[in-house]
Amino acid sequence: MANGRDKKDEIINLQLDLIRKMTENNIKRLSDDIWGSTRTNANPPQKPQTSAKTGTPAVPQNPAPVKPVRPSDADFIKASDGGDGAKPAEPEETLPEKENIDDLRKELDSYIGLDEVKKEVKSLINMATVYKMRRDNNLPTADVSLHMVFSGNPGTGKTMIARLMSRIYHSLGILSKGQLVEVDRSGLVAGYVGQTAGKTTEVIKMALGGVLFIDEAYTLINKSENDFGQEAVDTILKAMEDNRDDLVVIVAGYTELMEEFIHSNPGLESRFNRFMHFPDYTIDEMMGIFDMRCGQSGYALAEDAKDELKAILEEKSKDVGGFGNARGVRNLFEKAIAEQADRLAASDEPLTKELLMTLTEADLKAASEKA
Q1: Which of 71, 77, 107, 313 is the most buried (most CB within 10 A)?
Q2: Cβ contacts of residue 140 below 8 Å, gap of 6+?
Q3: Are 40 and 79 in contact (CB under 8 A)?
Q4: In this predicted model, what pLDDT tens digit does every residue of 230-240 receive, in sequence order?
């Protein structure tokens, strides 16, 4: 038994070494919406079965605190509380250099799928560029709102595009820092009277100079008694007005529920007039995402595994909420490489580079049963 474990450890170490050598200085940062959520809970959010008016998803009692990082080291700060009313840590002050807007355009074009979203983003880039040039030349500028509503199912690229927008606005000089702070209801709403405004204000301070990304924003409008979500909304609306030149807010969630959220408050309707819908990925797009993941991690699909991958994705994607689009692809990939490691550990064949790189039909089938 010990020998089997030793061999599996050897395989894993060889895999890691291979991945490190093949991907050094070549891996681009990818969105959490493609390769997985950075939430402390492992499961993707499940679509509520009832309207937001009837209740809200369960909120952890003591979500684990996440230390903010410098925007130069990561693309966003995850705002989280350390218990009811706890103050989030302050981000470090080191600012990232502005990126070249042409490089950001190329990165946008490299994303798989999202054709309509890409068109909207390019239009926003053009509008923001002209707006900034007019402002720099002391010309009159219209009161342009850059706040946005992102709607769509989990795993469709919403966080990825929000992060890119924060970098684009920083590149154009619209935002002074360009960080993205991601938060949900649990990071904004406290459990006692008078605490929510302070808690929300601390998150807003973290986001000043960048983008505040509020996921599942519709959970803030629960109409039950003793709910403080509306206090968070009011605090955010005031901050949007007070910091209109250096704060962008993006709210995201399921399409129907986001429409209900925006129309629940005249202040929300007046400030959020840009909508982007993120459609589910097609089977071919999800296969492309799986191939990209393989290429960047030093793996390759065996020829007979490609048809199996397509069949698995066709079956899994019938349950969009459960599978989670690109997030489901990431989970399938991670389970496939675990199955490959188990298979190689039980094999008597010499561990060649080709064997270490190849994912087989059997690996995918076994992974599918656990994904």
Answers
A1: 77
A2: 134
A3: no
A4: 999 999 999 99
